[in-house]
Structures are given as C-alpha cells and as structure tokens.
Amino acid sequence: MNMTKTYSGYDAIIIGAGPGGIYAACRLAEHARNSGHPLRIAIIEKGKKLSERHCPSKEKNIKCIGCKICAITEGFGGCGAVSDFKFPITNDFGGTLWEKVGKPKALELMQYVDRINKDVLAKRDIAVPKLFSTRNSQFKKLCTQNNLHLLDAEIRHLGTDLGQIVMQDLYQLLCNSGVDFYFETRVTAIEPAASAQGAADGGAYVVRSDDACWQSNNVIVSAGRSGSKWLGQVCAELGISTISNRVDIGVRVELPEEVFSHITDELYESKIVYKTKTYEDNVRTFCMNPRGAVVTENVDGYITVNGHSYEDESLKTNNTNFALLCSKHFTQPFNNSNEYGESIVKLSNMLGGGVIVQRFGDLVRGKRSTKSRIENSTVIPTLQAEPGDLGLVLPKRILDNIIEMIYALDKIAPGTANDDTLLYGVEVKFYNMEVDVTENLESHAYPGLFIIGDGSGWTHSLSQSAASGVHVADTIFQRRTHSVL
C-alpha cells in the first residue's frame, strides 16, 4: 500500500530554509503582494524551526554530543541564524555571484537584502547597527606596508541576538504570506516528473522525502554548506556538471579583545589576505568576532570550530576570535576537496575527542598544550576544548602558513603572536563542487531547477547566498507574469 503523500500546485518548491531559501521566498511573497498574483510556495527543511533550535553543548557548556541534526548548522535560518549574522556587501569576498549576474547587479541584490534586515528592525523600533566600511581606512595603508592586503567591503553586523530577531520575524512574515513549511523533512531525491514513478500532472519536477513528494515547475535548491555532500549526489544522479571546488582549512584564533580593538572598533571585521614567503600561499582572516565566543559545529558527524558574537553588551566577552584559513584545491588524480578536509577533521576528533586547543607559544616550540598551561594562560578560553598539539593534526604546509600569518598580523596588531594566544582546531569550511548553472543560477539541462547559495559553490557568505535567492525569485516571477499575460 502506497502511503506517500503528494503535494502539488506549487509555483515554487524551496529546498533548504537558510538565507538563500528564506530571501527567495520573501522576494516571491513581495512580488505576489505587489502584483495581486498569488503564489503558492513550499519550503522543505531537514532541521527545526528557529524557536526549537537548541544546542546542548552550548547551553550546558559541554563538549559537542553529536546530535543527529545539528542545531547550529541545520534549521530555519541556516547556520547564520545562530552564528555571527554578518552581511558583507562586497564582490571582493564571500563568493563569486558577480560572475553570473555582473558586479553592479550583485551589489544591488546585496543592498536589497540589507534593506529587508533594516526594515525588520525598524518595525521593532530597534536601532539598526552601523554599516562598517573599509574604504579609505587608515589600516589599508598599514596593511600594505606590512605585506598584507585589506579587502574592500561594507559590513552590517547584527550579531546572533539581532539576527535571530530578523529571522523569526521573516518566518512569521512568510507564514502570514501563506508559505507552507515542512520541517524535519529530509529530501531524498529530485526527479523530472516525466521519468518519475507515480508522478501526477503537478509540475515538471518531483521532490521526494521518505514519506511524501511535492511537484512544481520550479525547484530552488538552497542546501547550504552543510548540504554540499547531498547536493553533490543529486547533481551526479541528474548528470549535472560540477567543477572541483576548494576546501578551507585552518584554525580559530582567540586573544584579548584589546589586541585588535584599534581595527575592530573602526572596521568590525577586517578581511586580510597574506601571501606567505615560504610557499607563496594565500592565508586569510575570516569571520572576525570582536568580544565574541568560540563555538563548535557538527557537520555530517564531524566536530569543527567556529565563532559567534552578539550586539547585546551583556553577552560580550573579553576576547576576540577569528579564523585563519588556507584554501586547498585538488584536480588529478585526487579531486575531492571535501574528503581531504574531512580526513583532517577526523584526525582532530580522534586525538582530541572533538576540538583541540593549543597556546601559540607551545605550537611554535613543538610542545603539546596541557590543562595546566591553558589554565595558567592570560587568555581565558571561551570554549571548553581538549588541550593538545595541532602539529599532529594539520599538514606541515598549512601549519607553516598559519604561523607565518600570525607573525605578519603581529606587525599591525602587536600581541597577536603572544605565547598565550589560543589556537583552536580545526576549522574547516566545506564547499560543494561549483555547479554548472546559467546566469540565472539555473541548470542548463533542467529548466526551472535552480541551485543557489553556498551549496552551489558560487556564494560563500550570508549576503551573497541571500542575494542569489532574490535573483532567482525575480526570474521565476518574471516568467510566471509573462506566461499569464
């Protein structure tokens, strides 16, 4: 007996309720309101509602217990809803959306997303945090003088607290707009309806879970980084071409907030790139959290490290943390960048039972950090992690790059290379293979199948992921309007 529930009549099905999916739905709902043409939209998400996302390790200050569905990386709002919630408006980093839509259009889309966030806060009578800008910054010259490159960007930092307010209000807006949500639902397949068994006349594509299926002419896949492995499988099943992408590997640095305060007070986040003298590899800062906290993430069962920060003064710490990352690409004979990253995370988890923490002074002297050394450190860690030796985990080339970068940063932020600076490992950013899509982020072989966000390989930030969703929403609505006319 077939117990599969079938849902049809949708103008768009969105897989994944991260930034790409959320802002795509918001834009479609806006088009429907303004035009008077109602749209039926479904969002399928394997995680939980934002109000139900609770991380035991964070709330109880214990090590990650490996939940089947990680509350940090999965659920409404995606990873960004419970992390730092920064929206950089720039084409210099955070993805290459501009390669598909053009640089002016990419900035326009990101500015639109920024306006949505500001409007939500304004309706709540909450002061909108300032827009930081690196343009004309005095630190650009200082970086250049020390062989460092400060990337241009405007950044709006909302923090985990304000970010959750924005996400919750957008969720309510979408519910009020008639969007159907299917939480704790894992998509198992996407099939063309013409070849799908049991498909009714409900659209060009069938989206399946274990006990239900949905049909529509438009499917937006917004799987995020955490869904990159799944998306790779979907692309393989459908014969969609992908290009081998990168994996970013490194550590999260934690030090007294005073060390970087002269930079973070003006810029909040500084994206700094350094080309090492030893290997001529690029190392970059990533996800800077002034007066923030270091946290863990569970990605497909692997425990990695990340950072959060808040706008609420009462939730701030005395430390600043940021990542130092090296990008690795592989072609032949091995071309699976994510698998390489997973092997390093697995080694870290095996040696440390999760995340390892080490003093910088111990690392450069080849010593394993111990509990007593960490306790006697002048930097009080914000994450409970296992003292250990990152030299037994990270490849020598990556480790050499990180050490050299820390000494380079010490020239513009004296104190970065202090012995008591803490390094947490490993931090790994997994990316999907770069999916072959059109300028509308649509599959060449499957019209109406859109692949957006960080899972697509084209975006690597909240702002560009959200912008990609807005772009696709515009495309879908324009086509629907033309077909109606």
Give your account of this protein's structure.
This protein is an alpha/beta fold. The protein contains 13 helices and 24 strands. The protein has helices spanning 19-35, 56-60, 98-101, 103-123, 138-145, 159-176, 228-238, 257-267, 337-352, 360-364, 371-375, 396-410, 462-484, and strands at 5-10, 12-15, 41-44, 86-89, 131-133, 148-150, 154-157, 180-182, 189-192, 205-208, 212-216, 219-221, 242-243, 246-256, 272-275, 282-289, 293-299, 302-308, 319-329, 356-359, 386-387, 422-430, 434-435, 449-451. The strands form six sheets. It has an eight-stranded mixed sheet.
- The strand line-up of the biggest sheet is 6-15-16-19-14-22-20-21
Helix content: 25-40%
State the low-pLDDT regions, or none.
none
How many distinct beta strands? 24
Task: Supply the number of helical segments.
Answer: 13
Tell me the Rg in angstroms.
22 Å
Distance between the termini: 43 Å
Shape from CA axes? globular
Biggest β-sheet, characterized? 8 strands, mixed
Structural class: alpha/beta
Oligomeric status: single chain
- Percent range for β-strand residues: 15-25%
Mean pLDDT across all amino acids: 91
Task: Tell me the layout of helices and strands.
Blueprint: E1 5-10, E2 12-15, H1 19-35, E3 41-44, H2 56-60, E4 86-89, H3 98-101, H4 103-123, E5 131-133, H5 138-145, E6 148-150, E7 154-157, H6 159-176, E8 180-182, E9 189-192, E10 205-208, E11 212-216, E12 219-221, H7 228-238, E13 242-243, E14 246-256, H8 257-267, E15 272-275, E16 282-289, E17 293-299, E18 302-308, E19 319-329, H9 337-352, E20 356-359, H10 360-364, H11 371-375, E21 386-387, H12 396-410, E22 422-430, E23 434-435, E24 449-451, H13 462-484
Parallel strand pairs: 1-11, 2-3, 2-12, 3-8, 12-24, 20-21
Antiparallel strand pairs: 4-7, 5-7, 6-15, 9-10, 10-11, 13-23, 14-19, 14-22, 15-16, 16-19, 17-18, 20-22
